[in-house]
């Protein structure tokens, strides 16, 4: 069997509960049986009293518990007393432990028996057709040869060889006991609405049972191996009350090819659906725990446990189902690698399968209502003009993966096309430019995922986009989006667009705007995405921005300086994650919320290499500048980041307040000195001007005096 320790541990527990001869259908453990052997030795070595074909022990009340029986009569009548002591209990192996040698076809239980082992001693009676109980027994009763508790709330044993192919469990029964309907001849069983519990091995090894509809019951638990090795069971309907499917519940139900798990379910135990016919399963979000090998595993011809490489899990990203797809455990040497899809993705796949496709040149298409949808394109034309009409039908939609095999460099989608479905251009590695029409309304998630050569795209009139439409477009430099766009679904919309330089939003009445290649909300209060390869080492958050969205500056490694707005109130999760050159970051008291790993963190690439998992690590040399007890200060302390208080930003640098005061004082003195010097120079110049004027007056006076004297001399002559 399997070499895994968990397998060994689980199957060992099965051996302890049921006869080994009944496990020949591929589940006998061939290793790690030391615990079983030791238990069996302890049981065999225990001394019992033998009397009249019975071996018995005494209970704590001094009554008889029958431990085994060596009688060969087909009709076994259990006596009221043995050796004068009242018989009150039937042990686990009251009728022996060799199913092939057990002769009993009927067993009669006396009035005094008040306890029957919970492990059901009748599972060793392969010839048993009937059980009867004394009418005076207060704890048990029998109806048509089937053993029940006296209040008819628990079905204890349906005889293995009881003739008949159909059985209706009476109303009022709440529990099917351990191995209660074990290895019967039944092909049809009807369950009462009162049923709440199916115990361990409750209906296991029913090799003729084809259907089990318990949807109308109140069952909340299916015990371990509840339906194990029901080899022809193909139709199972579960109730909306079911919370737990325990280990091995449907192990070996090889014809079970589909099952609907209810929204109430929380736990699926290990091996629950191993060796079934399931190729896919939808797991509801309510499930929080999925055990080892619960889905997608089978036993090969060599008895080795194998994972089905084609198995698909359908669920929600981030759920237990999603985690199970890649679950691993070094100790037990296993690693899951199952395909995961959302329900929408699975429905899309099924829709494609159901379409009636027709060839048309390099295209394949299908008719939906009165229009055509393109399902495939294998063109290698350098410039590809997608047809607006195919055989008289207008083309309105491009379906998932349709252009994945296209080798064109430029693709022009015509007017009239309204929808591009999810992953429509997935891995279209040759295309460098795509132009979408004004008629375009919806682009599905991952539509251009891994278009690694795509450099530019004009998305035309697209109004709504699915999640991460451009993921893996590592050459994408420019994106033009309609101003009428209302929805960019999900976070990190432009993640892994490492060459993106600009995001352009045209005029319109939608929900977004752009400025200098940066994406904002229409009103400019939220900065949504900063292109990873945008030129420039610094960026100033515009006034009016109150929120920076999750992942807005993800992996913008060229940025060395970001100036925060004093109006900013919120920084989202991972907003500046991976900005490894952003060593200094200042936040103001206006900031009220700062998200998880918002700033100062990046991937630990060494951890990625060692175990394949990402690890968040602080950016080397990072310092956060803020005021004490602010939201940013608490964020830094919580994440063990270096935080500096008592500083201000001046001239692009963070300096202490004392230094700022000193610089300000020096500046004031410098200004005062300059003013004083200017005044002094002005006064001196004024004085000089006054002196010069006075000198000129005196010279003029002297000149006039000389002229007067000269005039007087002339008069005398």
| Main pleated-sheet profile | 9 strands, mixed
Considering the protein shown, what is the CATH homologous superfamily of the domain at 357-619? Answer: Ribonuclease Inhibitor
CATH topology of the domain at 357-619: Leucine-rich repeat, LRR (right-handed beta-alpha superhelix)
- Classify the secondary structure makeup into a structural class: alpha/beta
**Which architecture of the domain at 357-619 would the CATH scheme give at its second level?**
Alpha-Beta Horseshoe
Q: Strand-residue fraction?
A: 25-35%
> Which CATH class of the domain at 357-619 applies here?
Alpha Beta
Give the low-confidence spans: 1-45, 608-612
How many strand segments?
Answer: 59
Strand order, main sheet: write it out.
10-11-12-14-16-18-20-21-23
Net shape: elongated
Helix content: 10-25%
Radius of gyration: 43 Å
Q: What is the CA–CA distance across the termini?
A: 155 Å
Average pLDDT, all residues: 87
The number of helices is 7
Tell me about this structure.
With 717 residues, this protein is α/β, with parallel strands linked by helices. The chain has a domain at 357-619: Ribonuclease Inhibitor (Leucine-rich repeat, LRR (right-handed beta-alpha superhelix)). The protein is built from seven helices and 59 strands. It has a nine-stranded mixed β-sheet with strand order 10-11-12-14-16-18-20-21-23. Strands 30, 31, 32, 34, 35, 37, 39, 41 and 43 form a nine-stranded mixed β-sheet that branches. Strands 1, 2, 3, 5, 6 and 8 form a six-stranded mixed β-sheet that branches. The longest helix is centred in the C-terminal third of the chain and has 60 residues, at 657-716. It is elongated, with a radius of gyration of 43 Å. The N and C termini lie far apart (155 Å). Mean pLDDT is 87; it is low at 1-45 and 608-612.
């Amino acid at each position: 069997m399997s070499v895994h320790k968990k397998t060994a541990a689980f199957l060992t527990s099965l051996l302890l509960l049921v006869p080994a001869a009944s496990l020949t259908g591929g589940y006998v453990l061939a290793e790690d049986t030391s615990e079983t052997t030791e238990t069996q030795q302890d049981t065999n070595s225990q001394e019992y009293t033998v009397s009249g074909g019975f071996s018995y022990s005494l209970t704590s009340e001094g009554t008889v518990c029958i431990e085994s029986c060596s009688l060969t009569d087909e009709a076994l009548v259990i006596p009221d007393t043995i050796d004068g002591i009242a018989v009150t209990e039937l042990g686990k192996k009251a009728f022996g432990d060799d199913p092939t040698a057990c002769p009993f076809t009927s067993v009669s239980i006396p009035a005094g028996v008040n306890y029957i082992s919970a492990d059901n001693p009748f599972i060793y009676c392969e010839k048993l057709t009937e059980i009867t109980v004394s009418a005076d027994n207060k704890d048990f009763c029998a109806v048509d040869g089937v053993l029940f508790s006296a209040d008819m709330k628990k079905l204890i044993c349906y005889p293995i060889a009881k003739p008949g192919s159909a059985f209706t469990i009476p109303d009022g029964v709440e529990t099917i006991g351990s191995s209660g309907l074990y290895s019967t001849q039944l092909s049809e069983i009807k369950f009462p609405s009162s049923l709440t519990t199916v115990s361990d091995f409750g209906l296991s090894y029913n090799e003729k049972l084809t259907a089990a509809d318990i949807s109308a019951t109140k069952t909340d638990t299916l015990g371990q191996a509840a339906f194990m090795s029901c080899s022809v069971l193909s139709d199972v309907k579960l109730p909306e009350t079911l919370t737990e499917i325990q280990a091995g519940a449907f192990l070996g139900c090889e014809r079970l090819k589909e099952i609907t798990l209810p929204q109430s379910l929380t736990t699926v135990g290990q091996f629950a659906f191993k060796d079934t016919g399931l190729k896919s399963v939808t797991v509801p979000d309510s499930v929080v725990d999925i055990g080892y090998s619960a889905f997608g595993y089978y036993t090969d011809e060599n008895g080795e446990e194998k994972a089905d490489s084609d198995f698909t899990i359908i669920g929600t990203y981030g759920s237990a189902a999603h985690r199970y797809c890649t679950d691993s455990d070094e100790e037990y040497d296993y690693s899951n690698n199952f395909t995961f899809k959302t329900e929408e993705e699975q429905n899309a796949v099924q829709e494609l399968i159901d379409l009636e496709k027709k060839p048309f040149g390099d295209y394949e298409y299908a008719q939906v209502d009165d229009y055509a949808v393109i399902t495939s394109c294998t063109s290698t034309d350098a410039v590809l003009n997608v047809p607006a009409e195919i055989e008289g039908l207008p083309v309105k939609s491009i379906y998932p993966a349709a252009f994945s095999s296209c080798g064109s460099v430029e693709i022009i989608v015509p007017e009239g096309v309204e929808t591009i479905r999810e992953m429509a251009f997935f891995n279209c590695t040759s295309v460098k430019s795509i132009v979408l029409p004004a008629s375009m309304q919806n682009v599905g998630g991952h539509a251009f995922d891994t278009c690694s050569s795509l450099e530019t795209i004009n998305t035309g009139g697209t109004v709504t986009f699915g999640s991460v439409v451009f993921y893996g477009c590592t050459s994408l430099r420019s994106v033009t989006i309609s101003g009428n766009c209302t929805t960019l679904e999900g976070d990190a919309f432009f993640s892994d667009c490492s060459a993106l330089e600009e995001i352009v939003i045209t005029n319109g009445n939608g929900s977004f705007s752009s400025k200098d290649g940066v994406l904002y909300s229409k009103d400019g209060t939220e900065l949504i995405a900063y292109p990873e390869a945008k030129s420039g080492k610094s960026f100033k958050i515009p006034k009016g921005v109150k929120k920076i969205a999750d992942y807005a500056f993800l992996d913008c490694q060229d940025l060395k300086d970001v100036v925060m707005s004093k109006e900013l109130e919120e920084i989202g999760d991972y907003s500046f994650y991976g900005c490894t050159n952003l060593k200094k970051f200042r936040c103001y008291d206006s900031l009220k919320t700062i998200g998880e790993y918002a700033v100062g963190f990046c991937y630990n690439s060494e951890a990625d290499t060692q175990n394949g998992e990402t690890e968040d690590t602080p950016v080397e040399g990072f310092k956060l500048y803020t005021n004490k007890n602010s939201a940013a200060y608490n964020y830094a302390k919580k994440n063990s980041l270096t935080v500096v208080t008592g500083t201000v930003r001046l001239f692009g640098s963070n300096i202490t307040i004392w230094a700022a005061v000193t610089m300000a004082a020096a500046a004031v003195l410098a200004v005062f000195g300059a003013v004083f010097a200017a005044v002094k120079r002005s006064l001196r110049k004024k004085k000089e001007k006054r002196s010069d004027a006075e000198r000129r007056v005196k010279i003029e006076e002297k000149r006039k005096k000389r002229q007067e004297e000269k005039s007087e001399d002339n008069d005398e002559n």
